[in-house]
Amino acid sequence: MIEFEISGETYRVNKLDAFAQLHISRKLSPVLPKLLPALFKIFQSGQAGAFATLANPVSVGLPQTESGGGPDLKRVDIELVGDIASTLDPVAEVLASMPDADAEYVYSACLGAVSRRQGSAWAPIWSRQQAVCMFDDIDLGVMTLLVARVVMDSLGGFIRGLLAKTGERPKTPGSSGNA
């Protein structure tokens, strides 16, 4: 179980059960070669917070226009936006190439493993029965980050095994990358 913060909210991820891991790995296996380097880069570089900033600019303090009508693009770090966009390009390609049913299964299963701190308690963020997010402020950008964290946490060993076979050894969050 891991805990982390996105856009000022604390989330907890429980490990997926073995069959959910199996089904998710099967759905993601055709796209893992493109997806993994992008996910590792996002979390290693600290861009996850910046990605959440772009997904929900008001809640994380992106410079706003004086009228409060949205982000003030004249005051946004364009280099940072370019870096994030180039990192996210493979993720967008992967999501676009997945069949709808596969993408929905992966998101639903992964989001079902996430809870959010509400005072001293934890509340599930996803209703599996109704396939709906339980919090109005969680948008697609935050959902995607949450899914990525679940995949990296629950399938980390499987992914490292795949990468070991190809000779790649990217560092995962919290590791030195040395085996």
UniProtKB/TrEMBL annotation:
InterPro entries: Phage_chap_TAC_15-like. It holds the Pfam family Phage_TAC_15. This is Bacteriophage protein.
